[in-house]
Specification:
Blueprint (H helix, E strand, L loop, with lengths): L23 E3 L5 H14 L9 E4 L7 H13 L4 E5 L13 E2 L13 H6 L5 E5 L2 E5 L7 E4 L4 E3 L8 E4 L3 E7 L2 E4 L9 E6 L3 E4 L2 E4 L12 E6 L2 E6 L2
Parallel strand pairs: 1-2, 2-3, 3-4, 6-8, 7-9, 8-10, 9-11, 10-12, 11-13
Antiparallel strand pairs: 5-6, 12-15, 13-14, 15-16
Function: Cell division inhibitor that blocks the formation of polar Z ring septums. Rapidly oscillates between the poles of the cell to destabilize FtsZ filaments that have formed before they mature into polar Z rings. Prevents FtsZ polymerization.
Family: Belongs to the MinC family.
Keywords: Cell cycle, Cell division, Septation
């Protein structure tokens, strides 16, 4: 019996593809024990917030050595926070068993994320258009969608569904019902505000400070509301 072996030609190149993913940046503050206590209190009011979300840990200015960094990563892992990378650390502190060191992150453009099951049942998506630095959404933002516009304000002509998320570098204006999450001032614009015609939000945030539904005054529900920062506190008031 004659056996013939045919070898595949050797590869002359390897193909690499670029792909962008939206990631949350988590920036702990010293002392870490106190920060973790605050994190636990916040997470208890927003269960599942980090599930399925890529997260980057920003430890800039903390000066953590490798054992301290490993402990922080472990503490976050125990809280169901999965890290895709670490920013602001000495590369020598990241090694086997720790997420990689990252640098050069930049703000993303507009993103619209919708899971396949919701997409099959959902109507046509709202139309988005730029108006100066603002992003205008003509229609409703469906449940499960994420709209991200770090360059300025986001204006929604319709309502924001439960489970939807609006992320803006500036202010957020909703001319319908706000049922999802509104996150304003993400580029450090502390003077940003959140406005809505009918307030039913799950979470509001301005310049990194969050307030969940459990911490909001019940008398604000179903009313026209605005939210803004005073120092380290989110202030909310009815507009009607």
């Amino acid at each position: 019996m004659l056996t013939v072996s045919i070898s595949a030609p050797p590869r002359t190149s390897i193909r690499f593809r670029g792909r962008s993913f939206l990631a949350l940046v988590l920036a702990p503050e010293a002392p870490l024990e106190q920060w973790l206590e605050q994190f636990d209190a916040w997470a208890a009011q927003s269960p599942g917030f980090f599930v399925g979300r890529p997260v980057v840990l920003d430890v800039t200015g903390l000066g953590l050595d490798k054992p301290a960094l490993a402990k922080l990563v472990s503490d976050l892992h125990d809280r169901s926070v999965r890290l895709m990378g670490i920013e602001g650390s000495d590369p020598s502190t990241c090694g086997l068993g720790l997420p990689p060191s990252l640098s050069g992150g930049r703000s993303t453009g507009v993103a619209d994320v919708l899971d396949a099951q919701a997409a099959a049942a959902a109507p046509a998506p709202a139309v988005a258009r730029k108006q100066g630095d603002a992003l205008v959404i003509e229609g409703a933002v469906r449940s499960g969608q994420v709209i991200i516009h770090p360059e300025g304000d986001v204006i929604v002509a319709g309502s924001v569904g439960s489970g939807a998320e609006i992320v803006a570098g500036g202010s957020i204006h909703v001319y319908g019902t706000l049922r999802g999450r509104a996150i304003a001032g993400t580029t450090g614009a502390a003077k940003s505000r959140i406005f809505c015609k009918k307030f039913e939000a799950e979470l509001v945030a301005i310049d990194g400070l969050y307030k969940t539904a459990d911490a909001m005054k019940p008398e604000l529900r179903s009313r026209a509301v605005q939210a803004w920062l005073e120092g380290d506190a989110i202030i909310m008031a009815a507009m009607d």
